[in-house]
Amino acid sequence: MDQLYLIRKTLGDLIPRHQQVFSNNQFFCGVSIPEPPEMEPLELKYPNLSHQTLSLMKSCLRMDPSERLTCEQLLRHPYFHSMREKSESTSREQDRPNYKRTRLPRRHLPPGVSNENKIPTIYSLDNKKYYNNLRKEITQKQILQVPEGK
């Protein structure tokens, strides 16, 4: 009951539909909402809030639900412009190209094959075989070339 009183004191009288719901509720049978001696609008309750903030609050707290702004309309409210600008400037900073040179991982490829050519994954298995065989050949040649006198 005290909440309904404070709502009336701040936002004004209930709309007819809300009054009907209240009067038909068995819990409130025979009870009436006290009438506030004077109104205390949001501007008086929150004197330090900006005009945009108060406007947003009033848009959310309209007594008649059909008069309240939709979520989409609220997000376009001037109150959010400064936040939107901050968000856009942050996203612009993130979208800037990073001029730091990033180093790509090296791929050891057989002679005559460049990085620009796209190599199928099957080739990478052949690539390992190629290098293993090459390593064996080089090792055998080095063994054969060692002078016997040493």
Order of helices and strands: HHHHHHH
- Which sheet architecture does the biggest sheet show? none
**Kindly state the mean pLDDT as a whole number?**
76
Q: Give the overall form.
A: elongated
CATH topology term of the largest domain? Transferase(Phosphotransferase), domain 1
Name the structural class: mainly alpha
Distance between the termini: 107 Å
Count of runs of 4 or more consecutive helical residues: 7
Percent strand: under 5%
The CATH H-level homologous superfamily of the largest domain: Transferase(Phosphotransferase) domain 1
Give the strand tally.
0
| Gross CATH architecture of the largest domain | Orthogonal Bundle
Explain this structure.
The protein has 150 residues and is an all-alpha fold. The chain has two domains: 2-94, Transferase(Phosphotransferase), domain 1; 108-150. Helix content is 52%, strand content 0%. The chain contains seven helices and no strands. It has helices at residues 2-11, 16-24, 42-45, 51-60, 71-75, 81-95, 121-145. The protein is elongated, with a radius of gyration of 39 Å. 0% of the residues are buried. The model is unreliable at 118-123 (pLDDT under 50).
